[in-house]
Design brief:
Elements lengths: L5 E2 L4 H9 L5 E2 L3 E2 L1 E6 L9 H5 L3 H15 L10 H10 L6 E5 L2 H9 L9 E7 H4 L5 H10 L4 E2 H7 L3 H6 L1 H4 L2 E6 L5 H5 L2 E7 L5 H6 L5 E6 L1 H13 L4 H4 L3 H11 L7
Parallel strand pairs: 1-10, 7-8
Antiparallel strand pairs: 2-3, 4-6, 5-9, 6-10, 8-9
Length: 267
């Protein structure tokens, strides 16, 4: 497996320039086809909550989703696709095979700098070209995107093509493991404000970082040095990229105030 390329900016300006990814293909001016995922520690792999929960995730996934659908039915209407249920479950902490991403590098930076106890550790923002990832789709799913004139899926598009996880994983027999990026339904303001995107890997329970490493040119890692985290956090607060905005409601407000007014070591 090849190592995903890594960049380590030393200043806030360099960090923004790297995340702008102007050396990657641009569409519609400076708009890219990138999604981002921020992690507080650069050493954390891209493993899903379901793969961390069980040694054999495939043995319990169906039971988790079945029971979640049974007890949470009043929270999702009128659709009943497994993709909507997975989105709802992921959004509320159910262990799933999904990973959270965002279209916004600033939102990703928030999650890379949100935990002050990790400020002595380098963070990371993963940057992935979802259009390039989707060049490796099996023919059936690739045709769905071409017919729709889209670069990223919705839950509706996935439900029409692969209505259950068995048929989704079955397509990996054609291409080997493949990754899909899709936009969840706008269940609440949190998903909207975070510009949320989900990824899902078919045919493998290995971390998505392993799949990305096997497909050169689709991803890079932008390290957020520990010594840069405080400045990045201050800049994000100044730009109103905070828990109060990304988690609308009293819980987000409390998270923001606890972090903003918490103890701060001298720099």
């Amino acid at each position: 497996m090849e190592v995903v390329p890594e960049v380590r900016p030393e200043t806030w300006t360099e960090l923004l320039e790297v995340l702008a990814a102007t050396d990657w293909p641009q569409v519609h001016g400076l708009r890219t086809q990138l999604v981002y995922r921020g992690l507080t520690s650069a050493g954390r792999p891209l493993r899903t909550s379901l793969s961390r929960l069980a040694a054999a995730p495939g043995d319990i996934e169906h039971h988790l989703v079945r029971n979640f659908r049974k007890y949470a039915r009043s929270w999702l209407s009128p659709t009943d696709s497994v993709w909507d249920w997975l989105s709802l479950g992921q959004h509320h902490g159910l262990p799933t095979r999904l990973l959270d991403w965002t279209f916004s590098p600033y939102v990703a930076l928030h999650f890379a700098t949100a935990v002050q106890s990790a400020y002595d550790t380098d963070g990371v923002v993963w940057c992935v070209d979802y259009s390039s990832v989707h060049q490796h789709l099996p023919a059936k799913l690739g045709e769905v995107l071409r017919n729709e004139g889209a670069d990223v899926f919705t839950t509706e598009l996935l439900a029409d093509a692969v209505p259950d996880m068995a048929s989704f994983d079955g397509l990996a027999g054609e291409t080997g493991p493949f990754a899909v990026f899709f936009e969840p339904p706008s269940l609440d303001d949190r998903i909207v404000n975070q510009a949320a995107v989900f990824s899902v890997l078919a045919g493998s329970w290995d971390g998505l970082d392993e799949w990305l490493g096997e497909h050169p040119g689709v991803a890079r890692r932008v390290v957020v040095p520990a010594e840069l985290k405080w400045e990045a956090r201050d800049r994000l607060d100044q730009a109103n990229v905070t828990e109060r905005v990304l988690f609308p409601g009293l819980d987000g407000l409390a998270l923001w105030l606890r972090r903003y007014y918490g103890p701060r070591p001298a720099r």
